[in-house]
Amino acid sequence: MVAIFDIDETLAMTFTPFLTYMNKKNGTSFNRFDFTTYDWSAVTGLSFEDLFKEHITFLNDFDEMSRIYSETGSEYIINQISAHDEIYALTDRDPSGKAGAEYLLDRLFPGKISKIIHATSDFGKYRTPKAEIVKKLDAKLFVDDSFDHIKQSLDAGVNAYLITRPWNKHEGIPKERRLKNLFQLSKEIDRIYK
Ligand SMILES: [Mg+2]
Description:
Layout: E1 2-5, E2 12-13, H1 15-26, H2 40-44, H3 48-59, H4 62-65, E3 69-70, H5 74-82, E4 86-91, H6 98-108, E5 115-118, E6 120-121, E7 126-127, H7 130-136, E8 141-144, H8 147-155, E9 160-163, E10 178-179, H9 186-193
Helix pairs in contact: 7-8
Magnesium ion is lined by residues 6, 8-10, 144-146.
């Protein structure tokens, strides 16, 4: 069986370095707490196309990637799980950024993530709901920062957890399905793998 984690803002803290990159480029001063919604266009006033293009450029810039660190507790949790199970990363990043994703995950969690699955293709034109993927793979555990993905996964009967971020903190979800950080999965991992 397999445990599945989203990459951006779940395993890897990519959003603040991205904002730093964008602020420098555009002379703005946004920080992550300005983003109380997933709709980046609404917050920044930039078009979806421009943001999408910049995000892909950023995620494939190997210099920028050196500024990305891992989520609190993630190494510990990934190490714990990898003693028992395979770990996949499931991302909405475009497959054109596969090399960047592999490089990043290999730097943060060397040898621990056995597969990267892209839920989207053709720059967002095609999209398979993550809930559908994790259900099909019979994931023992799924963690993401997207309320929609977690809500749909819970509805499909998947053991899913939402990691709290400014853009999902007001969403209604059972308290026991929220994580402040990945350390909070310790008990759940003991339960699953004992
Ligand atoms: Mg994410």
